[in-house]
Design goal:
Elements: H1 2-12, H2 16-25, H3 27-76, H4 85-94, E1 102-106, E2 112-115, H5 130-136, E3 141-147, E4 150-161, E5 164-175, H6 176-226, H7 241-290, H8 295-327, E6 334-337, H9 338-355, E7 359-363, E8 369-372, H10 374-390, E9 397-404, E10 408-415, H11 437-442, H12 449-459, E11 463-468, E12 474-481, H13 483-489
Helix pairs in contact: 3-6, 6-7, 7-8, 8-12, 9-10, 10-12
The structure holds adenosine-5'-diphosphate.
């Protein structure tokens, strides 16, 4: 008990550092870290992909708009064979405002005829824009770039009239609105992602801490159980894995407690039973040594010592049998004919029965066969018939009958003895239980015979019950499966 207390105190004062180290090592934290990492990668991809997809969409819409504008402009010049600055100005003004940042129109040599930009106008000069050079060589140029929160779109196209090159147009458009929209979208997405990730980290940590606390509780309880504290219980509310673990743990602790109680009870009863004959032997031996006795009395005392030693031997044999039943598996079951085993039992008990004036009777045909361990069957029948003899009146009888049906053989062991009172019947198969202690002890019993019967019958998949015999006495009803019944069960 002391050790248990010391252990639990040590645990209670376990340094926080240890708990932290446990938490760091916990599988739950590793799971949480995995969730955080996975969501981080997901959000990172979303942050990279979504703005890129939107940018591409905007690029393509910008390019389409620029192409449309350039084509509209080019179409306006298609009816002129030759371009001069005046004509171009008129045409440009006749077209609705195209909302471009800059519009240039050149002649076929690349000289600028019109420039919408007034400061630093290129009018009258040779334009050196590569886009215009490409347009003059007959290729349409359209592209959009995104840099420094600005969409820059350029388009250049040759101006054709009657299959002749009469010049080129060049459009430039700087779009800050759409660029700002894109950048604000990027920023919003980034901050939402940061928020989500922070929330995930927070919740993961919270769940990890809660879960590790519950797991630590489970581990500590297992440790306490290991230290022998069977009163420990875990909270089993809810239906998750830890709650189910808690329920299983509580059942286990309960069963361990019960088996520990049974073990303690068994040890204390066994010690008590062994102590009594040993005390008698010591008393008788002391009496012989201390008193001047005549030879007849000494012989009587020595014979009593012999009887007590016999009792000890029987008791030890039964205790050994019970330990064997608890620890070793059942012997291989096989088809056993009941009659020869029953005859052997009666032969063995005949001298004792004769001594007590009890007759033994057997009604059993050769067909009655059970599936059981032969040694177990012998021991069970022996204990039942021996009790029938021990707890009987002189001139009484013990009768064993066996009858079979396809599934089971029913063996009845009846006697004309003292009978068992109703209130004792539920306890009759318990270890060390005796109805009439004085009578049982006189008969040499320690209350173990029927518990051996019970355990052996159970491990041979049978059953045993007790009832009153009509006309006085007791009747034990034993059923054991037939080999045929077992064959049906295992297809
Ligand atoms: P024991 O070794 O004392 O006989 P058992 O376990 O065989 O122990 O039996 C338990 C108690 O049940 C006995 O002490 C006795 O009081 C009672 N008992 C068992 N068999 C019979 C019987 N056939 N008739 C009357 N009482 C019986």
């Amino acid at each position: 008990m002391d050790t248990i207390l010391r252990h639990s105190e040590n645990r209670k004062s376990a340094p926080r550092r240890g708990r932290f180290a446990d938490f760091i090592r916990s599988s739950q934290l590793r799971h949480a870290a995995a969730y955080v990492l996975i969501t981080f990668v997901g959000l990172l991809l979303l942050n990279l992909y979504a703005p890129m997809a939107i940018r591409n969409l905007l690029f393509s819409s910008q390019r389409t708009a620029m192409t449309d504008k350039a084509q509209l402009m080019a179409a306006s010049f298609s009816s002129y064979e030759h371009l001069d600055a005046e004509t171009v100005r008129e045409v440009v003004h006749s077209v609705n405002d195209l909302h471009t940042t800059r519009l240039l129109v050149t002649d076929p040599d690349g000289r600028c005829l019109y420039d919408s930009q007034t400061t630093g106008s290129a009018e009258g000069k040779l334009t050196l824009f590569p886009e215009i050079a490409e347009a003059l060589s007959g290729t349409d140029v359209v592209y959009t770039r995104y840099k420094n929160d600005l969409f820059t779109s350029k388009a250049a196209m040759p101006l054709m009239a009657y299959n002749r090159l009469i010049g080129a147009i060049y459009l430039l458009e700087n779009d800050r609105d759409q660029a700002e929209l894109l950048s604000s979208l990027q920023k919003t997405l980034f901050w939402i992602s940061v928020g989500i990730e922070a929330l995930i980290i927070l919740l993961s940590m919270l769940f990890s801490i809660l879960f590790s606390k519950r797991m630590r509780n489970v581990l500590q309880s297992v440790q306490r159980l290991d230290d022998g504290d069977y009163s420990v219980r875990l909270p089993s509310r809810g239906n998750d894995e830890v709650a189910r673990l808690g329920k299983a743990f509580n059942d286990l602790a309960q069963r361990l407690k019960q088996s520990e109680d049974v073990r303690k009870q068994f040890v204390s009863n066994a010690s008590h039973e062994l102590k009594t004959p040993l005390a008698s032997i010591k008393l008788l031996a002391d009496s012989i040594l201390q008193n001047e006795m005549d030879e007849a009395t000494t012989k009587e005392f020595v014979s009593d010592i012999g009887n007590e030693a016999d009792r000890l031997t029987r008791l030890s044999a039964k205790l050994l049998e019970l330990t064997r039943l608890d620890s070793s598996p059942a012997e291989e079951r096989q088809a056993v004919a009941v009659a020869p085993v029953a005859e052997r039992v009666l032969r063995m008990l005949l001298p004792q029965a004769r001594k007590q004036g009890v007759t033994l009777d057997l009604v059993c045909g050769p067909a009655e066969t059970v599936l059981a361990s032969e040694d177990d069957l012998y021991q069970v029948l022996f204990n039942l018939v021996e009790n029938g003899v021990k707890y009987n009146h002189p001139d009484g009888f013990v009768r064993m009958t066996a009858e079979t049906d396809p599934d089971a053989v029913t063996i009845r062991v009846e006697d004309s003895g003292y009978g068992i009172p109703n209130e004792a019947k539920p306890h009759i198969f318990e270890r060390f239980y005796r109805v009439d202690k004085a009578r049982s002890r006189k008969a040499g019993g320690a209350g173990l015979g029927l518990s051996i019967v019970h355990d052996m019958v159970l491990r041979n998949r049978g059953s045993v019950t007790v009832e009153d015999r009509p006309g006085g006495g007791t009747c034990f009803v034993l059923t054991l499966p037939t080999p045929a019944a077992e064959r049906e069960e295992t297809p």
